[in-house]
Amino acid sequence: MSSPPLAPPAQPAQPDGPGRAAAQVSPPGSPTVIRASGVGKKFVAYHKRATSLKERFVRREAANGDDFWALRDIDVQIGRGQTVGLAGANGSGKSTLLKVLAGILRPTHGEVAVNGRIASLLELGAGFNGELSGRDNVYLNASLLGLSKREIDRLFDSIVDFSELRHKIDDEVKHYSSGQYVRLGFAVAVHVDPDILLVDEVLAVGDEAFQRKCLDKIAQFRSEGRTILFVTHSLDLIESMCDRILVLESGNMIFDGQPAVGTKLLRQRLGSLPVEGVAVPYDLAPVKPTAVTFSHSPGSPAQVQYDPGEQLTVSVELDLTDHAPPHVYLHVEIMGQGEIPIWMMETPAGGISPGPGLSVVDFVVPRLPELLGAFAVNVRVSDASTGQPVTARRFEDLFGVSGLQGAGLLRVDYEARLRR
């Protein structure tokens, strides 16, 4: 795929709202090999199609359809050697983004630039001709990916051995099972010596042994410093294999950062995190913490992704009845993985007096510490005059803090000394 040369990576932009995440730049010293800038992709959804040429002319309204945006304003930079997982619910735009990056689909607006040879396995049997044999399809598919006949001759036996389909290689591909399609397609893709490998969810079709073989090949590519992007619904796989995750929702990229943070955020959005009960009956409480939101400053647009050193505002919405204590005290805990309290924030010792109705209490953290992870919020309310508990609520809303260090919750300064 020929593409214009890439400029040096830009500095990361700050998220500008809940529906859009900032593009994360490549790690220092890692050249950018894929860059998407303001990419959107529109399709037209037809509710009623003309069934003949005559009907097309007679009933012109049959051709009318509604615009459907599969991608909206995607900004992303992928560095050389990164392994990136694309995740999201069905219909979030993952596969569409992969096809746009591969050059299979042209974006409606925005630009995509790629440096390097791409090998893609995006759809079951993509690029295969069902009437041709497996042997012929190896030559056809590999030539489409940029190999010469001499190169394919040299690699042919290795491709067939990897696919484990020597007994079927001269049969017509239309007689292959879905798993055999995947075997042959993946075997060709990984033998074209790609700089960039794009893989969709098709690996889920193969049997367990072949999936393991494919994952081992991807691990080999990682060790060789190649760039890999893959779509999967296996969040555990993303956590174990990826350096980075892009989370999409309704065509928007809502998170770009550490896999452990992104997968937890996605599980929370999908409702698959366990829900815990509150310490005091919530429905009967005269003071109810009804919502928690995260933003840069009080009243600014909500966002869920932050960098160390950034300002964070945690806003707790309260609903007070006429029977609420005149002064209430809030104790807010920021909870990390394993329900470990990371830090806590409190209102002044004398409490606050919000009065009946809805009120919002903003806790402003001027500078986030150097830590990584996804964090939830636990709010406890008590009567400031008596100290008696009123109610408590554990919110499942999460915010994430990401950074350049590869692992661990904290980054500490240290030096190594040799002692003899």
Describe what this molecule looks like in 3D.
- With 420 residues, the chain is an alpha/beta fold.
- Among the domains are: 32-116 and 195-269, Rossmann fold, CATH 3.40.50.300; 287-401, Immunoglobulin-like (Sandwich).
- The protein has eight helices and 17 strands.
- It has a six-stranded mixed beta sheet, sandwiched between helices. A five-stranded mixed beta sheet has the order 11-17-16-13-14. Strands 2-1-4 form a three-stranded antiparallel beta sheet, with helices on one face.
- The protein is elongated.
- Residues 1-25 and 274-280 have low confidence and may be disordered.
- Residues 53-275 form the ABC transporter domain.
- Belongs to the ABC transporter superfamily.
- One of its GO terms (cellular component) is membrane.
Report on the biggest sheet.
6 strands, mixed
* Fraction in helix: 10-25%
Question: Low-confidence stretches at least 5 residues in length (pLDDT < 50)?
Answer: 1-25, 274-280
Biggest sheet strand line-up: 5-6-7-3-8-9
Tally of alpha and pi helices: 8
H/E series: EHEEHEEHHHEHEHEEHEEEEEEEE
CATH topology of the domain at 32-116 and 195-269: Rossmann fold
InterPro entries: AAA+_ATPase, ABC_transporter-like_ATP-bd, ABC_transpr_TagH-like, Bact_Polysacc_Export_ATP-bd, P-loop_NTPase
Pfam families: ABC_tran (PF00005)
GO cellular component, one term: membrane
GO molecular function: ABC-type transporter activity; ATP binding; ATP hydrolysis activity
